[in-house]
What does this fold into?
Amino acid sequence: MTTRELPPSWTHVGRHAVFPQAGIDDIARFDFLANLNGFLSGRVLPKVREAYESKVKPAFEQAAGRAPQTRHEVRKAMAQDATWQTWSALRRSSMEMRQQAGRGLVFRQLDALNQRAAALNADAPTLKLDPTVQVPRYASAVDIHCMPGGYHTEVVPNDVSAAANYDSGIFATTGGMLGRYNDGGGQALVQWLASEHPQFKPRRILDIGCTIGHNTVPLAQAFAAAQIIAVDVSAPMLRYGHARAKSMHADNIEFRQADGEHLDYPDEYFDLIMTSMFWHETSATAMPRMLGEIQRMLAPGGLTVHLEQPQYQGMDPYEQFIRDWDAYNNNEPFWSVMHEYELQPMMAAAGFDRARYFETRLRGVVDRSIFPVASGEKEDFGRAALWTAFGAWKA
Amino acid sequence: MPPIDPIALANAKARGKRPYFFADADVERVLSIAMTIAMEHAVTHQRLDALERLIEAKGLLTRAELDAWSPEPEAEAERTRWMKEYIARVLRIVQQENESAERSASGVDQPMEQVMDELRHS
It folds into this structure.
């Protein structure tokens, strides 16, 4: 096995001022999890597909006289398959262990973390918390991706624990694919704008569902003269995100506690409105409403762009079924629904011009500080994240 | 405000019904515990490995010396006893199930209800 096939050790994770202090045992736990995930996706998952092709699908065809047509048929047929059960049980276990590792790390130093965040946030006009903001049902019905307490729960006053735990695990869960600061999504957007739309210079940018602002900071750095507003319903995420951005010298971001369905900015206020990995954690009523709000707040000539996992259209039922795993088994209940939407008609219903809608694949920016380019190689196969970017320009 | 309990909080369950994939949830419970032990074993290994590298870097010992080390007979016996006990400890249930199979064949490991009945009438 070459070094390039190994996920980078969590030793290389980016440490900003509010990042939890980890010891050698914590690093080993995250490294174990990154390698366990690699084993499960690299060695076990291909066998799940083989089991489907060689046993489960033929049995279904024998019984039904046709191949499975939907991911739901595949899911029901696969439920009894031993390879699938083993892969799923181990994957669920790894998700739970990841939460345990992050929370174990964070809670034993929570006072210090909260104090560091509070010191960086003290009297800052750029952190606007609003305790009257209600956590929407879609964010509280279950704890999203098995984070106990979800994004919003406060264990103590002025708490950042949910955010510190969230931040600590991403590097391990993604095998470092999003970079040392987990900001690969934001970096990819910046790179795409620079290469495809170099003339576009937004003056006001809105990031909805920003969590810890990890994908907001690259935009703030790329458009240093712009006014950037990052909103989220979760106070712990905003406290941590604001302190994190301050410590990384991204001073042009205002972090505001607000619900994306009810924003009070004037019509045509923003030149760029973005989200990253956000829609699959909303709901069927919230999503069109927010798209309507985005259309209202976007200035003529402005751009809205959204990074998401790929939609299911055109994918074979088995791949849809595998991608649905998180929906059923990792507390992502809207994931399955959202990924079957036709996005263009949805954007049109929100008031966007169909002709100005776009949907493209966006490759993540590889962090060269953890994945150096080997000589003679042009592409990082399997190293760079691949997203769907969809959106529209406003007429 | 009472102090928080970091251990219980770290282990808290996420809201939402947990899926079980095996027909027998007992198997999955054991798997979950085993995976955590596997992880903690890796933690110990990484710590030990770091220690060895530091010892080597400080010139106290080389890894080659460590690998070439062979214990004196007394130490060897102690280490072998440790290994034997460790394996038996880990595989305790295998031994106990074997004992039970032998005893039920000879009538020694009776079900508790039978013993209760027997004691009630004797």
Remarks:
- Chain A has 14 helices and eight strands.
- Residues 374-381 of chain A have pLDDT under 50 and may be disordered.
